[in-house]
Design a protein that fits this description.
alpha+beta, 6-stranded antiparallel beta sheet
Amino acid sequence: MGKKKPKWKAEYLNSLYKIYDWDKKLAGYFFPKYTDDMEERHDKNESVPDDVFTEKLNKSKASVSGGNLLVPMLKLNLLDIQEGLDLDYTIESLETNLKRTKLWKQWITHNHQQFSIIGTGVYTAREDRNMLSIVLGIDSDLILGEVEVVTKLTPLLDNLHEAGLL
């Protein structure tokens, strides 16, 4: 018997999709690119609030031209330590995180075309200052909806998981 592939799940909430792994752990967020639809709506002088409009797009399973996938990149474990850190520990942590950052860079270099990644950005996670998250800008049409979004993102998520990045 072959090894069963992990099953990703998506949950729509307030214009974004939370992405969960097979253990129901939050793996990331997907922010669809609604801007083209919103610009067209504003050009037509439609007065529906943006949140109502994005809700309508998601319910109707509209097509959008990509979005941003935000996933954890690395855990620093160096900030907000009151008692101070051992210098050797600090060096080891920085070296480990540098290796992981280079692994991300290498993965992006080798996979950006396959997954239509047009840009990246690194941010401090809102909930944890020791966590850096990476945003992958994806330029590929997709259909909105929990099943549809996770179906589109599964090859990318599987590849990141197999590379040890998720």
